[in-house]
Specification:
Length: 172
């Protein structure tokens, strides 16, 4: 019997975490089966625009998948999940500040989570598949950041569940 466990195996997963895993797996399966293309939001008129070829040059493969094709990273895979310093989380595509470290909390889902976004930083899209959340996009470039749900803690009751690869962290 092995003496060490992987990080994911050693983490206790609660109800939210399990639902997150199941939802992400289902969403990725459906997106793959449907031949996911860049979203309408990613191609709409936003202040910062690039061609698909330019985005591919500017972003890593993971960032492109999440920000431009509305993909999702594996839960518990982001280095930003355990980022607890004071600072600002910005869109990885354009550097637009979107979240403050003061609004970050551990949701148990495996993705960086926040109770609110910075003023004017984001827009939300339509409902997603079956999970009751709404898509969250950067208001400057239209990049897909993650989803927002109405099951977060006080003071907002919101849970912005954000892909770490869609963000960069800037310490204060």
């Amino acid at each position: 019997m092995p003496t060490s466990l992987s990080h994911a195996a050693s983490v206790k997963i609660g109800r939210r975490g399990m639902l997150g895993w199941l939802g992400a797996g289902t969403a990725m399966t459906l997106a793959t089966a449907c031949g996911a293309k860049p979203s309408a939001a990613a191609n709409s008129a936003f202040p910062l625009r690039h061609t698909d070829a330019e985005w591919r040059k500017l972003l890593t493969a993971k960032q492109y998948y999440i920000l431009r094709e509305e993909g999702t990273e594996r839960p518990f895979s982001s280095a930003l999940l355990n980022e607890h310093r004071n600072g600002t989380f910005a869109c990885a595509a354009d550097g637009n500040p979107v979240f403050s470290s003061h609004d970050k909390f551990d949701s148990g889902t495996g993705w960086p989570s926040f109770t609110r976004h910075l003023a004017g930083a984001q827009i939300t899209g339509g409902s997603t598949l079956f999970n009751g959340g709404h898509e969250v996009h950067c208001s400057r470039c239209g990049g897909h950041l993650g989803h927002v749900f109405d099951d977060g803690p006080a003071p907002t009751g919101k849970r912005f569940c954000i892909d770490g690869d869609a963000l960069v962290f800037r310490p204060a």
